[in-house]
Amino acid sequence: MRLSDLWSVLLLAVAAVGFLIAGAPLTKQAAAAAGFALAGAAITRAVDVTQERRREQAAAQERRRTDLDETRRVAYMALLAGNTRHYELVATVANALAHHGLQVPVQEAAAHLVTVAGGDTEGGSARWLREQVDRITAMLDAENKQ
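RE: above sequence
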């Protein structure tokens, strides 16, 4: 945590200490009450700042993962561009099948997808792709029942 994140905490803490020590011109009880109130506010703010930093770090990590996934998908496009006119579609679906739940080997997925995208909608590759769709549907159905 950076010091700049805690300026408001430090300000509240200094004021709290001042009220607790000085006590004048207020009565001792009023100064103590104000000091404890400010100390509580400083603690609360410190907790808020810490939680905010954690949320920011989690969001940054999620953005990084998303960026890396997109970079990988585009790299697959480049690798497949010479094999099919439909390299964007093939790379996107291969990336999803390989890295988003099914753990299908990307080379296997790409080979089947190139065949299907090339027009073979009845052969073994088309059956393979339908099986993947069925697996996904079964997984989603099972999750919806929970």
